[in-house]
Design goal:
Length: 199
């Protein structure tokens, strides 16, 4: 774990930090290989303007309680944290001094898989949620844009083994995406740790 390269993005109305080498290459390689095989990946249907499509990536959801997570009309029920996923979660919690209760995992199989402009602003997450996003596998560009000031944009390359942390008012004022690419690239696993309050 190398925290010396940590970068805090200078963004208005946001609190975003990037740890490009949070996990060393050796650990990141092993986690990628194991998670690709072990996680219960699924492809859900998503409704956009009344039309139903296959979601352009695979997902899996995990939690330390029985609370389901709903986003974009998709409701996911949690699998338990165990093995490598639990180890990764604890590594992040030890550095950030935060206890996460859930994780939405995404598998981008090729450059055709994507995640369009959105904010992680579901009411259940609270007004100012903290989202810790880990990348294993192929690096992908990550775009940010301000909701109101169209001149405010940011682009990062999320590297293998990196951690991106969004907190404070970020989800209130900014949107983000993982765009499609025509490049012939390999798969990427993205683990997004969140806090779902007990109900």
């Amino acid at each position: 774990m190398d925290l010396s390269q940590t970068k805090h993005l200078d963004l208005k109305d946001a609190d975003v930090s990037y740890y490009p080498a949070f996990f060393c290459v050796k650990d990141a390689d092993l986690y990628f290989k194991n998670l690709l095989k072990a996680l219960p990946w699924q492809q859900d249907k998503i409704k956009v303007f009344g039309t139903v499509y296959d979601q352009p990536r695979l997902t899996a959801f995990f939690g330390n309680n029985a609370i389901a997570y709903t986003y974009s009309s998709i409701t996911m029920h949690p699998n338990p944290f165990e093995g490598d996923l639990l180890t990764i979660k604890q590594s992040i919690e030890n550095v950030l001094n935060v206890t996460f209760t859930s994780c939405l995992a995404n598998l981008y199989r090729t450059g055709k898989d994507s995640n369009g402009w959105h904010a992680d602003n579901e009411k259940v997450l609270g007004k100012h949620p903290i989202i810790a996003s880990v990348t294993f596998g192929e690096e992908r560009p990550f775009h940010l844009k301000h909701r109101k000031d169209k001149t405010l944009k940011e682009k990062l390359i999320l590297q293998h083994g990196s951690l991106l942390v969004m907190q404070g008012a970020t989800q209130e004022h900014w949107l983000h995406q993982i765009p499609k690419t025509k490049k012939d690239i390999g798969p990427r696993i993205n683990l997004t740790f969140r806090i779902l309050p007990d109900r």
